[in-house]
């Protein structure tokens, strides 16, 4: 049932939700207003009744006054006045029987009527006797006083009950109004919370999603959304995710196309790389055979040694090719990025010194760890250093920066040189396999292998360059999350 | 006076073997693995034949060909290349190369081509 309700709620559009909220609010206000209307009417009719009842009370007091006059002056007319007033009120009580019975309650009504009846009967008897000498006279007068007292006491008591009832109603009204207004206020607050806080939260989420798309982190967009409602914002989110999905697919296709393109470069590169030593072997062996008779033993040895050197050259190329293509199993370890960089610098330290180059370090404090294959990352950094050294034949500076990204999710390693820079026309090819500017001295595999290694670490390698000013290679590696580190420490 | 040949290739063995073959034939041979130095040498000295690799660092085979044609219209040029694409061949022939050798170079063919271009030493 709850799930059903939740799903129903999820599938409502934003417009419908606002509509429903406004209707509920309206119904609530109407119900409270109707209640207040009827309750006010009830109070008014009670107050009217109390007024009527006060008149009766007043008549009873008049009766008692005449009764007192009778006892003071023994004037029968005073008693007759009592009877006149009493019978008038008695008739009123009988005639409006329904109203009094409903307001006072049946029991109290009958009681009041009975006391009045007894009082009036007693008064009648006294009028009929009209002689003080009668033996019943004393008792009757005593009864008259007693019933009169009862009558006024009881009627005041009844009036007070009515008064209390009105008080209670007014009080109830105030409480109902208070609770009703409270409910409206709370529902307003909830609506505010929903429409402004939850809505703005989701809009902010959309903003962050579009930023991720802009940054090319399509996968993050696709995996980062845990809940999608069926309303307008949900549809917008779905649209963005669909777009990110499509863009990711397109990017993959683009990468595939690039790979195919670099395969072409690879094939012609292999042909060229192997072609040269192969030609050398061909020439050497042909020369060896042609001039065999005229060659001295020592010369023959030199020929064979040269052939072996050229064969070694081919072997070296083949090995590098294999390294390039093989999906080597990486061994990931948790290390400090500083350690990896320092170890790499140590490996090229001699070349740096000889080349008249100074290394400057710019390192953030409190760097997170990285989980990497140390040998592979070292290979990448060493490769960047060697490129930097080659870019500065007359010496210069290498700036090594190790930083953590603002959200602490990435460690950024920058290697900047003050060398010749990379020409714009060759910049698109620097990560292609076998692309080299070093002629026969380079294999053109360094950066393409580096690219592969960083990719395997879910990282990024990019380059910024300015001709004759220098080149910066930027490596981004995912930082190992600190709380994970804590957990691992505990484990 | 033997005829003079300059051989330019960044592969040292190509230079050495060509020199050996042609010296034995009786020619006077100079070799260069640095094309810029070779170009300098060509500017200083007239050769009867230039044998050059096409793809080289710094100054490439087409630069050598252009410079030679400009300085010594009678000097013949033989081009060697590992990249025997149609485009480079057309370009080289337009630049009046005498012969065009794809690698690997066959010694006998080289000897024959040299003899055809500048005759016996």
List keywords for this structure.
heterodimer; A: 491 residues; alpha+beta; Heat Shock Protein 90; 3 domains; five-stranded mixed β-sheet; two-stranded antiparallel ribbon; rod-shaped; B: 121 residues; alpha/beta; five-stranded parallel β-sheet; 5 strands; 46% helix
Give an overview in words:
The complex is a heterodimer of chains A (491) and B (121). By secondary structure, chain A is of the alpha+beta class. Chain A folds into three domains: 2-198; 256-325, Helix Hairpins; 333-490, Heat Shock Protein 90. Chain A contains 13 helices and seven strands. Chain A has a five-stranded mixed beta sheet. Chain A has a two-stranded antiparallel sheet with strand order 1-3. In chain A, a hairpin with a 5-residue loop joins strand 4 and strand 5 (410-417). By secondary structure, chain B is an alpha/beta fold. Chain B has a single domain (4-118), classed as 3-Layer(aba) Sandwich (Rossmann fold), CATH 3.40.50. Chain B has five helices and five strands; from the N terminus they run E-H-E-H-E-H-E-H-E-H. Chain B has helices spanning 12-25, 35-44, 61-71, 86-94, 107-118; strands spanning 4-8, 28-32, 49-53, 76-81, 99-102. In chain B, strands 2-1-3-4-5 form a five-stranded parallel beta sheet, sandwiched between helices. In chain B, helix 2 (35-44) runs parallel beside helix 3. Chain B is globular, with a radius of gyration of 13 Å. The N and C termini of chain B lie close together (8 Å). The mean pLDDT of chain B is 89. At the A-B interface, helix 8 of A face helix 1 of B.
N-C termini distance of chain B: 8 Å
Helix content of chain A: over 70%
Rounded radius of gyration of chain B (Å): 13 Å
Q: What form of chain B results from the Cα inertia axes?
A: globular
Termini gap of chain A: 43 Å
Give the strand content of chain A: 5-15%
Can you write the helix and strand succession of chain A as a string?
HHHHHHHHHEHEEHEEHEEH
- Main sheet of chain A: which strands, in order across? 2-4-5-7-6
Largest interface: A-B, 18 and 19 residues
Oligomer: heterodimer
Helix content of chain B: 40-55%
**Uncertain spans of chain A:** none
Q: Let me know the number of strands of chain A.
A: 7
Mean pLDDT of chain A: 84
User: What is Rg of chain A?
Assistant: 53 Å
């Amino acid at each position: 049932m709850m799930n059903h309700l939740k799903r129903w709620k999820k599938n409502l559009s934003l417009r419908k939700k606002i509509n429903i909220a406004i209707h509920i609010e309206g119904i609530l206000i109407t119900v409270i207003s109707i209640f207040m209307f009827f309750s006010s009417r009830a109070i008014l009719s009670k107050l009217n009744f109390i007024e009527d009842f006060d008149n009766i009370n007043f008549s009873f007091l008049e009766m008692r006054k005449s009764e007192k006059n009778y006892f003071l002056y023994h004037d029968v007319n005073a008693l007759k006045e009592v009877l006149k007033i009493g019978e008038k009120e008695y008739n009123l009580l009988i005639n409006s029987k329904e109203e009094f019975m409903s307001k006072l309650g049946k029991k109290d009504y009958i009681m009041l009527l009975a006391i009045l009846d007894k009082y009036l009967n007693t008064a009648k008897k006294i009028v009929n006797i009209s002689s003080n000498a009668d033996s019943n006279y004393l008792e009757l007068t005593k009864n008259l006083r007693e019933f009169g007292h009862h009558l006024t006491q009881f009627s005041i008591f009844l009036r007070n009950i009515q008064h209390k009832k009105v008080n209670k109603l007014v009080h109830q009204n105030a409480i109902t109004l208070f609770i009703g207004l409270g409910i409206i206020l709370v529902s307003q607050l909830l609506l505010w919370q929903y429409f402004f806080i939850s809505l703005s939260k989701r809009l902010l989420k959309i903003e962050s999603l579009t930023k991720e798309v802009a940054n090319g982190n399509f996968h993050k967009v696709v995996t980062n959304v845990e809940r999608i409602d069926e309303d307008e914002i949900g549809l917008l989110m779905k649209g963005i995710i669909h777009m990110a999905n499509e863009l990711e697919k397109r990017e993959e296709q683009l990468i595939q196309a690039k790979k195919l393109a670099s395969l072409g470069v690879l094939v012609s590169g292999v042909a060229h790389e192997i072609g040269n030593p192969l030609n050398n072997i061909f020439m050497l062996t042909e020369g060896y055979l042609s001039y065999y008779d005229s060659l001295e033993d020592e010369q023959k040895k030199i020929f064979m040694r040269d052939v072996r050197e050229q064969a070694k050259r081919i072997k070296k190329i083949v090995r590098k090719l294999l390294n390039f293509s093989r999906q080597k199993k990486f061994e990931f370890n948790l290390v400090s990025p500083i350690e990896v960089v320092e170890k790499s610098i140590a490996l090229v330290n001699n070349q740096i010194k000889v080349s008249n180059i100074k290394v400057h370090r710019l390192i953030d404090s409190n760097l997170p760890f990285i989980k990497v294959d140390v040998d592979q990352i070292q290979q990448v950094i060493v490769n960047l250093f060697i490129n930097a050294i080659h870019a500065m034949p007359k010496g210069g500076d290498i700036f090594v920066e190790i930083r953590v990204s603002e959200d602490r999710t990435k460690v950024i390693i920058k290697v900047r040189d003050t060398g010749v820079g990379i020409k714009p026309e060759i910049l698109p090819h620097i990560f292609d396999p076998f692309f080299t500017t070093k002629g026969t001295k380079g294999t053109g595999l360094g950066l393409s292998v580096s690219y592969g290694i960083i990719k395997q670490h879910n990282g990024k390698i990019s380059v910024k360059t300015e001709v004759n000013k220098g080149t910066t290679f930027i490596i981004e590696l995912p930082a190992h999350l600190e709380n994970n580190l804590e957990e691992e420490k505990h484990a | 006076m033997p005829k003079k040949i300059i051989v330019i290739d960044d592969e040292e063995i190509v230079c050495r073997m060509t020199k050996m073959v042609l010296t034995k034939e009786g020619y006077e041979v100079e070799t260069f693995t640095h094309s810029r130095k070779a170009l300098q040498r060509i500017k200083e000295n007239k050769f009867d034949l230039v044998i050059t690799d096409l793809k080289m660092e710094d100054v490439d085979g087409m630069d050598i060909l252009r410079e030679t044609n400009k300085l010594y219209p009678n000097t013949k040029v033989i081009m060697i290349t590992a990249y025997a694409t149609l485009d480079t061949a057309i370009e080289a022939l337009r630049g009046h190369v005498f012969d065009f050798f794809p690698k690997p170079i066959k010694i006998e063919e080289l000897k024959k081509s040299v003899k055809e271009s500048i005759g016996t030493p």
